[in-house]
Amino acid sequence: MTVDNSAANGGPAIDVRGLVKRFGSKTVVDDVSIRVETGEIYGFLGPNGSGKTTTIRLLCGLLTPDAGEGTCLGLDIRRQSAAIKRQVGYMTQKFSFWEDLSIAENLDFVARMYGLPDRRRRVVEALDRLGLSNRRTQLAGELSGGWKQRLALAACILHEPKLLLLDEPTAGVDPKARREFWDEIHRLAGEGLTVLVSTHYMDEAERCHRIAYIAYGTLMTHGTVDQVIAGSGLHTRLVVGSGLHRIAAALDGQPGVEMVAVFGSRLHVSGTDSSALDRALAPWIGQPELRITATEPTLEDVFIHLMNRSTDNFR
Q1: How high is the pLDDT of residue 127?
Q2: 82 and 196 in a common domain
Q3: 179-218 as b/e, with b when 16 or more CB fall inside 10 Å?
């Protein structure tokens, strides 16, 4: 599938400024500005119910903002939302196809709803692309999570959209199916498709070209994974050895220690004050059964740090 992005006139796929969205008294998106390049995979992370999905919908004109402006695929998100929607493929969190229809019947029905010319050819191409041809007669209700995911993605690209929205698409899917799904997403992006994806998996975030962290309507950070980690101001010490749970309990709540997490035979101790971290770890430095070194914080370290800093103002 080769995507024609002529509508964007060589500009970014999405360029929005100062987006605000309120539901009643709650501001669920607060002054968000984001630019997404054509062919980019842009990931959204953050706590559950913190405005990620609403933000994604605003970015592409599926919701009208209460304030702010911008373009999606070269079209105004306020005045031309109907034209934008025709060029978007949207994969929701919940499987939303007809379980008593076969894979091929589901795709044919979607193609009919879009009014696609030569729909049989498009259905065959989608079946082939997602490895569904041999299962074309299988009922959707009989599929495992990974195969349902493939069917949903096939339906999303039938009309050859320029923008793909994926709302936690791999929740409940096994690691092999997740990897195969992401391989296909990268192939689509390589053909010019722009992808917005929300995810809770750090390994998936690391497969995005850029990421944004949304917490209760506020854009707290964005950039490449390396930029987000470097900009966090976080320092991490790695403790390897025995008795780590005892050490973790002793460190919890100490000045300068923001996070303590045990990973098997390794302990991550993180905070924004490097000297304070070393002072907290001083009682264990030099013990022969332990090795304590400075290490780069992981993306998970950074996002737990951001979660601790964010305030749930939706309640």
Answers
A1: 96
A2: yes
A3: ebbbebbeebbeeebbbbbbbebeebbebbbbbbbbbbbb
pLDDT of residue 5: 54
What are the backbone angles phi and psi of residue 119, rounded to the nearest 5°?
-65, -30
In one letter, which amino acid is 71? T
251 inside domain: yes
With contact defined as beta carbons under 8 Å apart, do 240 and 265 qualify?
Answer: yes
Residue ranges making up the domain that contains 279:
235-296
Residue 262 and residue 167 share a domain: no
**Residue range 183-242, pLDDT digits in tens:** 999 999 999 999 999 988 888 999 999 999 998 889 999 999 999 999 999 999 999 999
pLDDT value, residue 284: 95
DSSP string, 166-196: EESTTTT--HHHHHHHHHHHHHHHHTT-EEE
- Global pTM value: 0.89
- Could you tell me the two tokens for 117? 């010319």
pLDDT of residue 6: 46
Q: SS3 string of 235-295?
A: EEEEEEECCHHHHHHHHCCCCCCCEEEEECCEEEEEECCHHHHHHHHHHHCCCCCEEEEEE
